[in-house]
Design brief:
Length: 285
Amino acid sequence: MTAATPVLAAPPPASATARREPLITLDRVSVTYGRGAAAVAALAETRLSIMPGDFLALVGPSGCGKSTILRLVSGLLSPSSGNVLVAGREIGANEVRIGMAYQNPTLLPWLTVRQNVMLPLKIVQPFRASWHRKKRGEYRDRAEALLAQVGLAGFGDKYPWQLSGGMMQRTNLCRALIHEPDLLLLDEPFGALDQFKREELWATMQDLWMTKRTTVLLVTHDLREAGYLANRICVMSARPGRILEDCAVTFDRPRTMELVYQPEFVALTQRLRELIIGLRTAATL
Ligand SMILES: Nc1ncnc2c1ncn2[C@@H]1O[C@H](COP(=O)(O)OP(=O)(O)OP(=O)(O)O)[C@@H](O)[C@H]1O
């Protein structure tokens, strides 16, 4: 059995991380969608630092602004106030490669699994510059290695319609990782799968993270998923969202499904659940 140690702990003191620069900083960022009577205050003034190598899960009541934070971090959305910093500079000033995987895998149906996985190498620099030279050699090998790591060896020539939902999501993860992103954004990536498939994918995701140590920002409604995968969980308040709790999750890795039934793990998810239910109830009063 995996040793299950502390459940919740305060994030490391500032002095412990002082020498490492955050990869992403939300500096007093807020977001309001629309204007006038139609304005929706989605995110209240929020501060968040994501350190290199973090696996950070964002949880909170529906509509609290979790995906809004993903959009800010990816540069798809500008804040209404405050700054989003990447490696200490304004977004866009530093080149940060981003990989994304969302709930519905958006695989291109006319491309094979391998071609789908290799797509970012065709589009994103510096890989794009060598595309024609490497697409039949190094890049193909890289795609095959990733597919093998997620249990899809031999499926490279299949088309998306020949895959199960879980296989499509595995392919989606490979595509999000093939260009070695500095930051992986996951928005409910396993949400459309049944519980057993989801649990299999947690193990796959953990394996990928343990070998690559990519910085990951995961949005999920599933507290067990957050506890299994993340080394940090941020709980958001109801809309307009802000981060209410930022806790370290220090269970040993690799984590297994056995861990999920251990008292320390159950206590963690139960505590987070009560916090979120309390927030939902407070928002409707
Ligand atoms: N383009 C938009 N225009 C107006 N309101 C928006 C827009 N996008 C999001 N919102 C609103 O902002 C709030 C936060 O949205 P967001 O998608 O970030 O929440 P979420 O926490 O990811 O929700 P869920 O858990 O349900 O996916 C929600 O109330 C949503 O309805």
